[in-house]
Amino acid sequence: MKFLFDDESFSFEALRAAGFANYGGADLGEVIATARNIAEGDEEGWHRAWKATAERVEAIGRQSLADGHRVSAREALLRASNYYRTAEFFLRENPATDQEVTLLSSRSRDTFAAAAGLFDTPVEAVAIPYESTALPGYLFLVDDSGTPRPTVVYTSGYDSTLEESYFAIAAAALRRGYNVLAFDGPGQGAALREQRLVFRPDWEAVTVPVIDYALGRPEIADDKIALFGYSLGGYLVARGAAFDHRIAALILDDGVHDFHAAFERMLPPVLYRWIEEERDDVANPVMAMLATASTQVRWALRNGVWAMGAASFADLVRMSRRYTLAGSADRITAPTLIMDAENDQFFKGQAAEVEKALTNAPTRLVTLTEAEGAGEHCHMGAMGRAHQVMFDWLDSTLPTGLPRVA
């Protein structure tokens, strides 16, 4: 779905930013006006334009707050958070040391935190014990009654953040009587940027302490916990569910069976063979050349080296082999909704592979289409339609007797 740009990656990221308008994360006019100032494929122009919009909208929010206009402040600060995240997105040349990455990501977090403090429903910033540290998170609650409620645990993906969780799932969940526990895991958001934690394929090492934490919260119904995986999170939560059977349901948005296959599809066969043969002296220079010609390839490789702690592009591709459900999918027993996007440019065909592999779990595979505006990866631009499918399924899948909002 072409949206504002011919460049496929710019088009998708603009659609992603605009799609959060469903839940107050964007104004369409602001998105269009920002895009007008960005030339095709100009990553620095993208950064400048989105940062300028974010700063302008944040200033509106801060002034509204100072003047006592709570709702106006909340709405502007939510939009600013999304725009700061978007401004940071393509800054991947040296993200670990780039002070602009640090600045924009911290502003995205700060503006979201300020907005969350103005919500009509309770939001608590939490720290989830993990190994020798703690993972940052939010617990979004339906109300302050303390009633144990069904709860969705959000796991983000290859580039998404804790703050994005509100638009991706929490706002829709709260409207339907579900709490949401969201966090940044290794390789994601502040856990990567501030704590320098990188991705790991054995995501059960993350899922187990997160579920431990959830079970210690009185507001969360122990037998009504659903895992929700967003983008690469579709692999991560499935892997976690294979080794932790305390969850009642699993939602994969979208289904990912083999992350390595995405790189294999992206690269020419001869280059892929050099990588497999560990001829990195040849493979890395060629990959660098490919990266100069494609925004999507350049971003995917640079982001992956950073987020996965790889030594090089070729090392990243080999590391991705470990991110597969082969050998563990048959251990998943929870009822599973597998979302699929007709035109998924990253994981096409993967959702069907997941359904085939989940031999011991009740599954439902739903493909949303281009014709209904929901055919992009994670159904960007069609959040309402995607959430309708997810929560209608979850309502009928979790144990009966769910408490509902009055």
What does the model show?
This is AB hydrolase-1 domain-containing protein. Pfam families: Abhydrolase_6 (PF12697). It comes from Streptomyces malaysiensis. This protein is an alpha/beta fold and 406 residues long. The chain has 2 domains: 8-260 and 322-397, 3-Layer(aba) Sandwich (Rossmann fold); 261-321, no CATH class. The protein contains 16 helices and 8 strands. The chain has helices at 8-19, 28-35, 43-66, 70-88, 99-116, 165-175, 189-193, 204-215, 233-243, 260-266, 269-276, 280-293, 295-308, 313-319, 350-357, 383-397, and strands at residues 123-130, 133-140, 149-155, 179-183, 220-230, 249-253, 336-341, 363-368. It has an 8-stranded mixed sheet with strand order 1-2-4-3-5-6-7-8, sandwiched between helices. A hairpin with a 2-residue loop joins strand 1 and strand 2. Helix 4 (70-88) packs antiparallel against helix 5 (99-116). The protein starts with 7 loop residues before the first helix and ends in a 9-residue tail after the last helix. The model is unreliable at 401-406 (pLDDT under 50).
